[in-house]
């Protein structure tokens, strides 16, 4: 029994490791995160963590993918409910924009983007897959709203690309704590843009 307990402590559930990594990256940034510190937080040796992840960059990507899988499930729930397209678009925007300075999910994205220039093709492909899911869901929602007459006739794919660029820009400002841009201000700008360009 003691051996079984030790085995469980040396290999905690994957979600526990990724949740701890997300919290530590948000608090310290990836550069200050050490495998030893993460290991202490989850009761695992740094050697075990390196065995499972290989590098801090891989740990970062897996943590982002885990975080995104949770957000993706929430996004799917919001977008498939029985509600007008405009209401579901507001929910999408609300989910997209960070809660505030050092939002953990957005801190992960900032770290990933910071490493994108030197990333290998596999890492860039995985990042593109995550961003592609957000884009496809948004484009489909815009197309649905147009087809139902709720939105002005726009090219859904092009509009989604532009809206996501706007969301990314404001979200980065919110996440890094840029003075004069908080979450409510960002949401206000996006609502104004949608009123002027999309809503009937």
Automatic annotation (TrEMBL):
<feature type="DNA-binding region" description="H-T-H motif">
    <location>
        <begin position="34"/>
        <end position="53"/>
    </location>
</feature>
<keyword id="KW-0804">Transcription</keyword>
<protein>
    <submittedName>
        <fullName>TetR/AcrR family transcriptional regulator</fullName>
    </submittedName>
</protein>
<dbReference type="Pfam" id="PF13977">
    <property type="entry name" value="TetR_C_6"/>
</dbReference>
<keyword id="KW-0805">Transcription regulation</keyword>
<dbReference type="InterPro" id="IPR001647">
    <property type="entry name" value="HTH_TetR"/>
</dbReference>
<dbReference type="InterPro" id="IPR009057">
    <property type="entry name" value="Homeodomain-like_sf"/>
</dbReference>
<dbReference type="InterPro" id="IPR039538">
    <property type="entry name" value="BetI_C"/>
</dbReference>
<feature type="domain" description="HTH tetR-type">
    <location>
        <begin position="11"/>
        <end position="71"/>
    </location>
</feature>
<keyword id="KW-0678">Repressor</keyword>
<dbReference type="Pfam" id="PF00440">
    <property type="entry name" value="TetR_N"/>
</dbReference>
<dbReference type="InterPro" id="IPR036271">
    <property type="entry name" value="Tet_transcr_reg_TetR-rel_C_sf"/>
</dbReference>
<dbReference type="InterPro" id="IPR050109">
    <property type="entry name" value="HTH-type_TetR-like_transc_reg"/>
</dbReference>
<keyword id="KW-0238">DNA-binding</keyword>
